[in-house]
């Protein structure tokens, strides 16, 4: 019997962090942060089909497809009618690109719209993970708190990116455990000024506090960042808690020329969205 015709098929876009400052630890055990999120064109694909039971299949055999997966957790939290979900993975797990969070947000948005479910998606998203609320809208956003206090920022689209995706993986929990210091926030007004002036003109202010401890544990990541700068990136940094290293280039030709210098690591070309 042929598979049911898809009722929905949509991309779930990755993100990078232009900047990520960890500003302190909270009484509830979470950390306060200040970050500038950015959606990029790299994406997973989710397909939904009618079914008599909720299920998930995935083309990446390393990912669980049981109740622990954020995709199924999102569908159950929403209380949508049962669907069969197919997930095609491109965003690496444990890469600091928010793939699981983006997939979960896509489920919330797609199924709530398709089935006419009126629930507070932001609350459901935060219960699933600190990054999930950002992916409900995407774009460019300033975030504080755990990452859920979001302010849309002037759009930063079309910047050519080169992602270096090493085999090394970093869990978010281990990254937070490795932190040895906190940074003061620079504030939303400063980020607005940086965007207005051109993000790539201010690489020294676009920092990631996870780099120092993670690079100490995984020195190859520091080397990859340095090589991106040498290859012409105007800015390079680790995304999120790692391990993906991202470089932003002045133009697509510069980015494409740089790809040839990284035959020892998985690469992905992308653009900001």
Describe this structure in words.
The protein is of the alpha+beta class. The chain folds into two domains: 6-152, Ribosomal Protein S5, domain 2, CATH 3.30.230; 160-271, GHMP kinase, C-terminal domain (Alpha-Beta Plaits), CATH 3.30.70. 30% of the residues lie in helices and 29% in strands. It contains nine helices and ten strands. The strands form two sheets. Strands 1, 2, 3, 4, 5 and 6 form a six-stranded mixed beta sheet that branches. A four-stranded antiparallel beta sheet has the order 8-9-7-10, with helices on one face. α1 runs parallel beside α2 (99-115), α1 (70-78) runs antiparallel to α3 and α2 (99-115) runs antiparallel to α3 (121-128).
Could you give the topology of this structure?
Blueprint lengths: L5 E20 L5 E20 L4 E4 L11 H9 L4 E6 L10 H17 L5 H8 L3 H4 L4 E5 L4 E4 L7 E6 L6 H7 L9 H10 L13 H7 L1 H12 L4 E4 L6 E4 L3 H8 L6 E6 L2
Helix pairs in contact: 1-2, 1-3, 2-3, 7-8
């Amino acid at each position: 019997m042929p598979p049911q015709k898809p009722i929905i098929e949509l991309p779930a876009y990755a993100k990078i962090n232009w900047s990520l400052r960890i500003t302190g630890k909270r009484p509830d055990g979470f950390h306060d942060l200040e970050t500038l999120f950015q959606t990029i064109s790299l994406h997973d694909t989710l397909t939904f089909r009618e079914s008599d039971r909720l299920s998930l299949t995935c083309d990446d055999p390393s990912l669980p497809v049981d109740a622990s997966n954020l995709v199924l957790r999102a569908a159950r939290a929403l209380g949508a009618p049962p669907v069969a979900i197919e997930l095609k993975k491109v965003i690496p797990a444990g890469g600091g690109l928010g793939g699981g969070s983006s997939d979960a947000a896509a489920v919330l948005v797609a199924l709530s719209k398709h089935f006419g479910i009126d629930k507070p998606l932001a609350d459901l998203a935060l219960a699933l993970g600190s990054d999930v609320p950002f992916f409900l809208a995407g774009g460019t956003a300033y975030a504080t708190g755990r990452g859920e206090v979001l302010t849309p920022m002037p759009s930063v689209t079309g910047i050519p990116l080169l992602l270096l995706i090493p085999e090394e993986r970093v869990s978010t929990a281990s990254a937070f455990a490795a932190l040895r210091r906190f940074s003061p926030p620079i504030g939303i007004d400063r980020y607005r000024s940086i965007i207005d002036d051109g993000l790539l003109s201010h690489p020294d202010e676009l920092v990631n506090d996870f780099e120092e401890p993670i690079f100490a544990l995984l020195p190859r990541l520091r080397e990859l960042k340095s090589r991106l700068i040498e290859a012409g990136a105007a800015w390079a940094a680790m995304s999120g808690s790692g391990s993906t290293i991202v470089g932003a280039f002045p133009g697509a030709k510069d980015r494409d020329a740089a790809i040839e210098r990284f035959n020892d690591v998985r690469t992905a070309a992308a653009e900001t969205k």
